[in-house]
Amino acid sequence: xxxxxxxxxxxxxxxxxxxxxxxxxxxxxxxxxxxxxxxxxxxxxxxxxxxxxxxxxxxxxxxxxxxxxxxxxxxxxxxxxxxxxxxxxxxxxxxxxxxxxxxxxxxxxxxxxxxxxxxxxxxxxxxxxxxxxxxxxxxxxxxxxxxxxxxxxxxxxxxxxxxxxxxxxxxxxxxxxxxxxxxxxxxxxxxxxxxxxxxxxxxxxxxxxxxxxxxxxxxxxxxxxxxxxxxxxxxxxxxxxxxxxxxxxxxxxxxxxxxxxxxxxxxxxxxxxxxxxxxxxxxxxxxxxxxxxxxxxxxxxxxxxxxxxxxxxxxxxxxxxxxxxxxxxxxxxxxxxxxxxx
Amino acid sequence: xxxxxxxxxxxxxxxxxxxxxxxxxxxxxxxxxxxxxxxxxxxxxxxxxxxxxxxxxxxxxxxxxxxxxxxxxxxxxxxxxxxxxxxxxxxxxxxxxxxxxxxxxxxxxxxxxxxxxxxxxxxxxxxxxxxxxxxxxxxxxxxxxxxxxxxxxxxxxxxxxxxxxxxxxxxxxxxxxxxxxxxxxxxxxxxxxxxxxxxxxxxxxxxxxxxxxxxxxxxxxxxxxxxxxxxxxxxxxxxxxxxxxxxxxxxxxxxxxxxxxxxxxxxxxxxxxxxxxxxxxxxxxxxxxxxxxxxxxxxxxxxxxxxxxxxxxxxxxxxxxxxxxxxxxxxxxxxxxxxxxx
Lengths: 342, 342
Prior knowledge:
By secondary structure, the first copy, chain A, is an alpha+beta fold. The first copy, chain A, has 12 helices and 12 strands. Chain A has a 7-stranded mixed β-sheet with strand order 7-9-6-10-8-11-12. Chain A has a 5-stranded mixed β-sheet with strand order 1-2-5-3-4. In chain A, helix 3 runs parallel beside helix 8 and helix 5 crosses helix 7. The C terminus of chain A is likely disordered.
């Protein structure tokens, strides 16, 4: 039987591409949030790329084109945030069906421009082509920063405290609501908590300023964005840093809106927060001795807490990297992994 | 009636994106072969992006994945060549259906790697996602060069001689043969000329070294690659340079293979050469006083001619930019424009 990409899975596919591409000295390539290219004089260029494909990442009838324009830039900004960098310019690649309305395009570009203005990002290139059906959107974003502040996901150290910059699970709960809209009453649809969760899915806020601030704190060792789901991203951080993580499920912060809706739909809010994706907050590992002071300054700076969720530990002999969960002081095993694309 | 992208057309669509994106001082954005970003110390970074979409740019059953991997890099290399730059690194964005075989992917990556090795290009990032059907491939390529040698398409001057670095029309003839394969005899399919034309379509050769050499000749004012078809690209060069072009249809160079096949299928080889696309040779405008010496040195360097096809002239008052054709010493008007994507 022919082996397909479905059999292979997403991460082995990325590994395959990586094997074809040894990068040059001083460059960080596939595997972190951004590629890191030395520019000289202590500066590096950051480059990241994200695609949104109709019927894979979004449904045309369910998302306003303005929000989609916002989202494609926001998810890329989040990767620049995850290194601690400053975004600069974008390359927009669109493959669009010929029967798409020009007003759809205008609104899409407006959403992109609106968010771009907030961060001084301009579109300087890209490619536009037809599509035989689905809308394909890809955005490549360049940024830059001082090399010494660049925070890689491979720099986590045993003893570090793991923390995240925001509540998780809202975006995935929002997606569930979008998919169930037919079952909902009109009253529910106008409810504040419903709208809040749907907005978290459609219009995520990239943590650019948080990332820049955190990268400059000497106690912050590693940083990445929470995009594929906390569970999956925890796995990647521990793999890259060659450590294990001990995470308390009870400590993973969840919004009051998510709690309320979880009750309504009989969801387990903590598991949804762990396994949902597209949160776009940041995850950091911070030297234990610095954590209290970093967290205090973070809260003063951004008027929101830095949430500790666990810590990193040294691997014992024979132990492979991984994530160990604790729930109500007991060991706990998650059943399924978060969502793959294939 | 709702206005669609089909009604709008490709170039107004690009213009729409450009309007949303004023670029920063010293940057060249949408409108040339590459975006040009100042790096300081007299250097610029070049960035280009090209997408290949199944059933728009290729048919999965008609192109070997190795050739497709070659082609997606080659078309991007051609844009770097058009500025006179040196290619450096690539970002590969793939949206692939789950039922695609892993051997397809391996061969695709092999084709990409094989050409990448010739020019020292590595893949350092990108994004991989699923697709609901068609294969969507995008590649973003970075390069660099000394700013003083950068050749824009807007730098053509009245009096310049227009020339191209290769014969045109072969790729489009190859595409016609690929689409007609069912009608062809086995004898025709193995014929050298058939294979040559199909190869020109599937495995174009980017003119990197020619571009670097031409950019360093002081008589060479403007340069671009011939990718959308000579007729369309001539229009863009004259628009960007605010001049008109006088082009002799008889002088447009055509290969002996194309001449032979044109006879067989009753094609007009000159019109096919003018209106076909994906040639990926370079077009330059050269100061008339330098042309003879540049052409002589080019031929010595690359063992092939630099083909003069016409010249640039000043616009008279009230005249808009444009291209005027001469065929057998008579004025001649092309009937249809080359192919748009929408």
